[in-house]
Write the structure tokens for this entry.
Amino acid sequence: MKESIQRAFDAENFRRQGKAIIDLLADALAADQQGQVPQANPWKTPDERLAFWEEQFQQGSSDIAAITAQIVEQSTRLHNNKYAGHQVGVVTPESALLGLISNYLNNGMAVYEVGQAATVIEKVVIQQLLPYFGYDERADGILTSGGTLGNLTALLTARSVKAGKDIWQYGQRGQRLALMVSEEAHYCVDRAVKIMGWGAEGIIKVPTDEQFRMQMDLLVPLYEQAVDNGQKVIAVIGSACTTSTGTFDDLVAIGAFCQKYDLWFHVDGAHGASAVFSKKFKSLVAGIERADSIVMDFHKMLLTPALTTAVFYKNSKNTYKTFHQKAHYLWSNQENEEWYNSGKRTFECTKLMMGARVYGILKLHGFQLWEDYVTQQFQLGKDFAALIDAHPKFELAIAPDCNIVCFRYLPEDATIDLSAFNAAIRQLLLEDGTYYIVQTQLQNQTYLRTTLMNPFTTLNDLNTLLSKIEQTAAHLIKLEQAVSEERAAMVDG
Ligand SMILES: *Cc1c(COP(=O)(O)O)cnc(C)c1O
């Protein structure tokens, strides 16, 4: 045995470094919770970071606890109560540990025999979840790597079911397929359509109303127009919710439309399908039980490490129709529907043991944790919106449905370009690093965007955020005044 190999697999080393890393992460968590971490997102330019890591690679420590400490120090701190940026889940420590188990065991899961526990745990988890969507024992589901892949998977299933299963073998044979989705839908739907080869005409974008909700009265005319145009519309996607503003489409109405025209009804619930766990907010997804397929990310609102995504199917038979791949080295029986050979139904061949993380959360805390968390965060979104609405210097984009809140600062000087000004505020906040928030474009205007993911963020923190934005705005105005005075002086001189 070569010494290098021996060293790489040293069990005592693993134990020692593992303990050091867990200590380090637990210290980081405690520090965030005790308000001892001043920046939720310490900012440096890409070139500065690159120079640092290039130098580290040449001369830095090779102790992985030390490397971990450096990575933690330079990373976005989701566990910090001033984190309100993108909708990435704040992970419970236990579910991070269960992720580690997958990293170590590395059971591939494509076939039952390589990952027996993980395969069966995934089924147990899916079965626990189905009733929350109003699905009965005919339903089923799979876990996959992210909402993007989950949506593509579900849409491939829709294509097989609604456009003929031979499509897998013979291609589309001249059929001009299309689906309908709100213009506010996540870009991954557009990508899925293009990947399937339907082209730009394959995605019919339904305009939204002033709440950014799909306009239901446009479904029939747009559908008829597409049919007249020689297209075959096979599906409608409801957003639950949209990414930019967190708006929930009317799933009851979309379901009824799909039923009437015999279309596949898919719900992109990457973020907001989690509403099903909240008694207070589950009416947002009323009608979800009508969907033929649903995507939900655990790594957004369900406190789980990325990537962990479920695709649920109302009719279990359909989950076997997505792919018709034969792989003789994997499956001895090519045609059979074997729930326990997960690779038959997922994009992944080798897959992370993602069910274990969900299983762990549910065993440790039950559904109560999700109920409490989703309810709290959605309510916080509404409370923050009320705060913004009452503030003379801020304007809410829309009254939010959930924990995604978009707004902008209104400077007194009406000649200032609002979009450029708010983008400049956002840039200064990013460079300051104390809070982390993002921005979005709504009707070609730039808005500040917060997603309230952290369960320790309080209304008080958000009040401080607004003050911070006001100070930043004042600073910007001063800067601009100084620049224009300098210019005037130059002209005079
Ligand atoms: C986040 C999101 C996605 C993409 O999911 P990933 O897990 O990031 O791939 C898709 N749709 C919606 C509505 C989302 O919010």
Notes: The chain is about 45% helix and 10% strand.
